[in-house]
Amino acid sequence: MKKLTISYTFGVLLLISLPGKATEMLVDTKELYQLLQSQAKQLEGQQQQIEELRTLVLQQQTQLSKRLEKTDKKVSTVTKPANTKVTLNKQGLQIKSNNGDFSFKAGGRIHTDFAHFDDDITQMASGAILRRARIKLAGRLFRDWRYKAEIDFAEEGDVGAKAVWLSYNGWKHASFKLGHFKEPFSLEEMTSSNVITFMERALPNEFAPSYHLGFAASGYGDYWSLSGGLFGEGNGTRDDDVDDGWGLVGRATLAPFYKPGQLLHLGFSSEYRRLDSNDEVKFRTRPESSVTNRRLVNTGTIENSDYTLKLNAEMAAVYGPFSLQGEYFHTHVHRNDLSDLGFDGGYVYASYFITGESRPYSVKNGEFLPVNPLDQYGAWEIAFRYSTIDLDDHDIQGGKQDNYTLGLNWYANYNVRFMLNYIFVDAYPNRNAVDENANILQFRGQVFF
Question: Nearest 5°: CA angle at 363, between 362 and 364?
Answer without folding.
Answer: 90
